[in-house]
Batch of 2 targets.
Target 1
Amino acid sequence: MRLDPGGEDFHRGVAVLVFSVILILPLLTTRAMAHKVNVFGWVEGDRVFVEGYFRGGKKAKDSLVEVFNEAGVKLLEGRTDETGRFSFKIPEKTDVRIVLTASMGHKNDFIVSASDFRESPSKSSRTPWVSAESRTVSAPTLEDPSRLETMIEQTMDRKLAPVIQLIRDSKKEGPTVAEIIGGIGYIFGLVGVAMYFNSRKKRSGGQRAAGSGQQDMGN
Amino acid sequence: MHISEGVLSAPVLLTGAVLTATGVAVGLKKMKNEQLPLVGVLSSAFFVSSLIHIPVGPSAVHLVLNGLLGLLLGWVAFPAILVGVSLQALIFQFGGLTTLGVNTFNMAMPAILCYYLFARHISQDHPGVAMVLAFGCGFVAILLSAILVALSLIFTGESFVAAAKLLVVAHLPVMVVEAVVSALSLGFLMKVRPEILGVPHAT
């Protein structure tokens, strides 16, 4: 049986398929997960914390973590634990690039800037997992500028903790419905463009009169 | 299935890009105007199927649907998969732009092979046999993709056997799911839209 693109059957066939794709969508949004690996690093006191997770929030367990300095020299390496986390003491005061390699060719990196790890006097009192309230800011002593700087660092840390948490969480989310629909729309757009040029070619050339009913395409 | 940016060396990336460019050129040449809507729909299905996630082991795997694309499109699966992979890279950040060639090839080549191995022998006179062939098509496409991904990783220090074992084992559930999806899709199309199946076979 020859396909008749202008025919009612064909349109119905395509409509059925499109409809099926659209039907799957709601199912996807509830469990929109996939397998891009993410890595996120942040500084707590004198340690750098690394967390690896796949998009959708699944932890990247037992994945290789390598830490490089600005010059690309490897400073240290380790593996994430059961919760997808790894931490290390700040090795030197340069920007560090944290590279996480999960299995099956998944890899990503994150840069922790050197400016994040200034001296943090209250490091020992800090709990590693952002409990902002527990951080104390010592009384201002304005004679000492470096002291003031430390204070500002601490305040910033505290103020930014929720923001960092937000960023960390936001990266775990899967793609939005808008992104998914946008992608599908893009593909349909491409089909439209291809059809447009095909129909123009046919109109101007007139040759290639293969297939029945092709002239109806792209109207 | 999507290899991330910065994992592969330049020669592997280049080889993948050249092979994909060739495959896409062949696919575009073979693509018929009346196939366009179907190509678009299947490309979209490929694009969204990567969001259907099956939790396995330390990593995460998802549906690919390359077997189904090979089954219905033949060589035209190449451009359809390239479009899908590109959008997955741009929108979902799966894989990356430099790995576009390798990733497309890893998923599209098995589709073509399965088209020749299974899809060409499908006849609508024997629906039972056709569904078994579609099942094989979905299953083997993923298996071959897993092996191709392992092959791509061969120069990265990972041992081929270890990587292949991991990938194949992790994708076992995907193979089964895709085999079933391919068989059911074919069964559905044979009943409802048999003319769609005629398209890739028409010369």
Target 2
Amino acid sequence: MPKTDVILKVDNISKQYRLGLVGTGTLSHDLNRWWSKIRGKEDPYLKVSESNDRSTISKSNYVWALQDINFEVQRGEVLGIIGKNGAGKSTLLKILSRVTSPTNGEIKTKGRIASLLEVGTGFHPEMTGKENIYLNGAILGMTKAEIKQKEDEIIEFSGCQRYINTPVKRYSSGMRVRLAFAVAAHLEPDILVVDEVLAVGDAEFQKKAIGKMQDISKGDGRTVLFVSHNMAAVKSLCTRAVVLENGKVIFEGSSAESVVFYLQNNKSKDIITKYQYDCSEKPIKSIEILEDVLITGEKMTLRIRIDTKNYTKINLHLGIYDLNDEKILHLSSEYCKEGSLKTKKNIYECFMPKLTLTEGLYYINAGLVADNLIIEEIKKCLKFEVLNGDFYKCGFNTRKSTLKAKTLIDFEWK
Amino acid sequence: MSIQKNEDWLYTISSKNKLIDLNFKEIWYYRDLLLLFVKRDIITVYKQTILGPLWYFIQPLFTSVIFTLIFNNLAGIPTGEGVPSFLFNLAGITSWNYFSTCFVDTSDTFKKNQAIFGKVYFPRVITPLSVIVSNLLKFGIQLLVFVGFYIYFVFFTSKAYGTTPTMALLGFPLLILFMALLGLGLGMIISSLTNKYRDLKFLVGFGVQLLMYGSAVMYPLSYFEEKLPEYSWLVKYNPMTAVIELFRYMTLGVGDFSMFEFGYVAVVSVLIFLIGLIVFNKTEKSFIDTV
């Protein structure tokens, strides 16, 4: 193993929260805490809490938002932190950025941490764009001299040159975000902690933002901790990732592995990825999807096993339907080179190099035609889920507005 | 695997904290932020107003006029031989205003700055400090008004024959410091407590009003002692009474000056400031969970 240069070490971090209304009974709990502290005992409320699972109701009023989190970050590494809503990502970020302190454990760092939990923190609507650059920059930890030096660059990056002396309250929300991100992008801390700030702005700006993030991590060798739901962004930006669930680290590995683990861990429960029917009179024995996770723009393979010994010429018809029973695609073997499938073997694969289906659930109906007769039809033999992905290979997930379309297609603008 | 021995960590984030955990180097690093906060407060308060900073003048002037009418002309509180009641009241109000704005404006630090504090780290103490500094500028403007009227009364009327600034005026900067420390300290204590127990915010509103009547703003301490001797200790040991009395002694030469009074103010204000700092420091660590 190469010599390690750990810049950030998270050591057994835990964070406890009190459920329900803070306010009623806090004074009595405070007194109780104080009393046990005086007697040299442990905090009585630390023991009663349990792990953070939103859907279960329990008697305890305290909950662990984070429990025994451990990981290390190397200098120059871009670490992704992924997890469902409520997995503890934001709490972890808050602790890292010193907005709140942990209940137990400690984090050691060798560099200055700057956090971007939100863009435009402290923007004052009455002040001009330029004044806000200074204020926001200073809040994020830059000195006035640093900001002055980068002022032109920031203004140019934001693309708001014309409005820079206009109060921010007159800005459109998009412009405000651009300006705010421009300031944030010019921060130069040793460690940058970023929350989903990339989910803002139009496509052009998102691309710019991703590009800037890549520059920061690759070009300048800065350490970045990046929290996102955008798996494509995590994959393209991060070198390593940590998956959180219910306040615990459940997976740690390369970003690609972590993304697959996360997606697999979170797919819908009622999907059927393998159909099997071992009955002698029906020729189709099984149909299965080979990929663990299906992502828009990535490959999909269907493997079908058929008992072909009684036929000379067969064709398979696979129809893909959405939940409204509308047919989206038809995969027929009639269009293969030979015009039909060879009957010498009995395992066939249908390979799609680039899945054009958008995010959602789909059914497959399968039909087998042999010697021009319909031999077998299976309705809804498979049900699968396609997750959003980076169809256009631009570094971020396909946008929500695009996803209203049923399928995607590669295209070019001239 | 190589294990790094004698690791030199820049800092550690943990739940354990010392009584006073102030990193002065860090606060110094953020000095630009303090100045920018001050700038923000100053330039945004009177945006889209017609009179703008004139409001700084108007508020103490009108209050003094009303006080003079009610307390001196109507109720007949004496302000001392050869001291115009208007000037007497203006002195009281100017000094009281600085303390009370410092106190009131810092007492909701956490609640008001939730949005920022919840997202970015910087030494939280920067925020109340910036309030103190921007109020100092307002105080400076109001002091100019006071000086203006002082000159008017001394040189253009014959009413102010009894007013002379004393040598004690040299201690004036110290007095301002004590006012600031007092307001800041109390404000930090209240802001830390309001954060969890919201009841206190109701107290601040009318508490400050009541405190003004107990701080010898519109009457001399000696007059109170003469009229209500059994309650006079309440007013006498109020540090703000001492501050205001000292302020009037320094500028107008009314009342009496004692080193004891000065020392008392100094000790109390520094003490309150330190308590405020400790409480504030303890609260800032996890306030976002309890706010």
